[in-house]
Structure formats: structure tokens, C-alpha cells
Write a structure and sequence with these properties.
single chain; 304 residues; alpha+beta; Thrombin, subunit H; 6-stranded antiparallel barrel; 6-stranded antiparallel β-sheet; 4 helices; 12 strands; 21% strand
């Protein structure tokens, strides 16, 4: 056994020294090759690098896979959250649709029950916004409808959502609309549900202030603002917007109309109010006092 071990050690020593010598020679050769400054050796070095040095794509593959997996997980989480939000909004829309259908049916029943006759004169003419002459000093738009279409100066203009302004200047085929944001615009409004009357004054901003409000304490942000119809400027109950509290602590109106996308405007045919020359005639007819005339027999019975 001791002889075999010595024989094994005798072989390992020379082989180890040989391998070390070969390694030293190889390293020395590589050093010399890398230190030689020659075009031919440079081409040889480039060829060796291209052949021997491996691509590190395989080493980066796990990292790239993990990054893509994290990105996919985040995208899936975002899509799942958006899907949940859409489901909730769809449920809310279904509830609102059902409520709208019920209100529409109820409104139709009430109109039929009360035999309400809607004003046939309150129709509209639709015009296309051709130009916008908005400036720091004037806010108006030009429409492609005019006198030939029956447009009359002073008629209100709406965009389908809310009141935009009024006609101020009519040509044969064009009409100018002064917007509610113009500094020359002053319209009477009613704030609901408090019923407060006020004036909406334009100041060249998208949120014009409310002026001449009698009792501001009864008005809250979010209250509905409609035209009052006072003075015969506009018909009553045209939607203007909602009350909002400005940065200057003034009550302003967040307009319902989309002023950023004024493409089509509806011009309402608002007929002027009837002038009342004899207010007393509204209370008493020409024949005398109001009230049923009692028959003579009933009067005689009462006297008796």
C-alpha cells in the first residue's frame, strides 16, 4: 500500500509542474500577442475576440425575463383596476338609465294628466361656429346663420349642454354671439334650490362671478344656476351651470357649456314677453268683481 501511494505521488508531481509551465507559457504568449503593435496582430486579436469572447445575452436573459414579468404584472394590475372601475361605472350608468326612464315615463304621465301645452314657439336653429374672435377684451363667436334664417338680435344660444350667450349682431348669412364670459355680458339668473336672484357678469374667464346676490349664505357650491327670465332677456329655466367658490373666495359659476369645443350652437327662437299695460285687468275682469254670482233663489233663501 505504501509503495502504491509513493508511485502515485511520483506521477502527480511532474504532471503538475508540466501544467504550470504550460499555463505560464500560454499566459506569456497572450501577453506578448496583446503587446505587439502590428496591423496583422491586431486583426488576429479581433478575430480571437469575436470567436472566443461569448455573447452575454444568455447571462442577461433571466434579468430581462424578470423585468418583463414585473412589467406584465403591473400592466395586469392596472387593467384589472380599470376593469373594476368600468364595471362600477356601468352599474351606476344602468341605475341612472333606469331612473331616467322612470322619470321620463312619470313626466309623460303628468303632462298627459295635466294636459300641458308646451310652447311651440320655443324651437331652435342650429348654426356652425366659423370663427372665434376670443381676445383679452372680447369673447364672441361667428355663426353661419343670419337674417335669411330668421335669426333675431338678442336670441339665446346654447351648445346642447348649457347656455353659451346671446345674438349680438345679425347679418344676412352670419350672426355674432356674445359669450357669457364677455365683459359686456350681464344676464339675470336664478340659483336653485334657494331661489336667489342674481346677475351673472362676464369677466373674460371661464368662471364668471355672481353679483348682486341678496343672501349669499343660502347659496352653496354645487347649486344649479338657470336663467331667470327677468327683463325678457332670456327664457326662464335655461341651464347656465353650477355655483363654485373661486380662489378669490367669490361665488362664481362653473358654466355647463363646453367652451373648449364650440362647434355647433342652437339659437332658440325666444319670443318677446307680452307687455302688460293694465295690471289690474289681470285680477278683475271688465264686468266687475271676481266670483260666482249666486242665483236669486239662493239669495232669497239666505235672506229668509
Amino acid at each position: 500500500m505504501a509503495r502504491d501511494r509513493n508511485t502515485h505521488d511520483e506521477y502527480i508531481g511532474p504532471i503538475r509542474r508540466l501544467l504550470v509551465a504550460i499555463g505560464v507559457v500560454v499566459l506569456l504568449g497572450i501577453f506578448l500577442v496583446w503587446r505587439i503593435d502590428s496591423p496583422r496582430v491586431e486583426r488576429f486579436r479581433a478575430a480571437v475576440i469575436d470567436r472566443v469572447v461569448p455573447s452575454f445575452d444568455w447571462a442577461m436573459a433571466p434579468v430581462t425575463g424578470i423585468v418583463e414579468l414585473v412589467a406584465d404584472f403591473r400592466s395586469y394590475s392596472a387593467l384589472s383596476e380599470q376593469n373594476g372601475n368600468l364595471r362600477r361605472e356601468l352599474q351606476q350608468m344602468k341605475a341612472w338609465k333606469e331612473a331616467a326612464l322612470q322619470l321620463e315615463q312619470e313626466n309623460a304621465r303628468l303632462l298627459e294628466l295635466n294636459n300641458v301645452r308646451l310652447d311651440p314657439q320655443l324651437t331652435y336653429v342650429t348654426g356652425v361656429v366659423m370663427t372665434d374672435s376670443g381676445s383679452p377684451f372680447r369673447q364672441s363667436v361667428l355663426l353661419n346663420v343670419g337674417r335669411r334664417d330668421g335669426i333675431v338680435d338678442g336670441w339665446p344660444a346654447m351648445d346642447g349642454l348649457g347656455l353659451v350667450g346671446r345674438i349680438s349682431g345679425v347679418g344676412r348669412g352670419t350672426a355674432r354671439v356674445i359669450l357669457l364670459t364677455d365683459t359686456s355680458s350681464r344676464i339675470p339668473v336664478t340659483i336653485q334650490p334657494s331661489g336667489q336672484k342674481a346677475i351673472l357678469a362676464g369677466d373674460n374667464t371661464l368662471n364668471p362671478p355672481i353679483e348682486f346676490l341678496e343672501n349669499p349664505d343660502t347659496v352653496r357650491p354645487g347649486d344649479r344656476v338657470v336663467s331667470s327670465g327677468d327683463g325678457g332677456v332670456f327664457p326662464a329655466d335655461l341651464l347656465v351651470g353650477q355655483v363654485a367658490l373661486g380662489s378669490d373666495r367669490r361665488l362664481r359659476v362653473r358654466l355647463a357649456a363646453d367652451y373648449g369645443r364650440l362647434e355647433f350652437l342652437r339659437i332658440l327662437r325666444a319670443q318677446p314677453h307680452e307687455d302688460i299695460t293694465d295690471p289690474g285687468g289681470l285680477l278683475t275682469p271688465e264686468g266687475g268683481l271676481i266670483g260666482p254670482v249666486l242665483p236669486r233663489t239662493a239669495e232669497a233663501g239666505n235672506d229668509g
